[in-house]
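Structure first, sequence second, as always.
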């Protein structure tokens, strides 16, 4: 497993457990959504922030 995928998986699992414990989310329903948060790890051209999207709205 490449380092980016390992970091992504570890981060997702951490967030799932935090969300489940504090907010009582359904883990399986939200698991797929978390992968979208880490696209910037696999694709260097994707920015980790939404600055450009916010600026384009102005």
């Amino acid at each position: 497993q490449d380092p980016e995928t390992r970091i992504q998986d570890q981060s997702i699992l951490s967030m799932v457990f935090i969300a489940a414990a504090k907010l009582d989310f359904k883990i399986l329903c939200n698991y797929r959504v978390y992968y979208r948060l880490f696209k910037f790890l696999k694709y260097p051209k994707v920015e980790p922030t939404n600055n450009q999207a916010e600026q384009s709205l102005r």
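Margin note: Residues 3-23 form the longest helix (21 residues).
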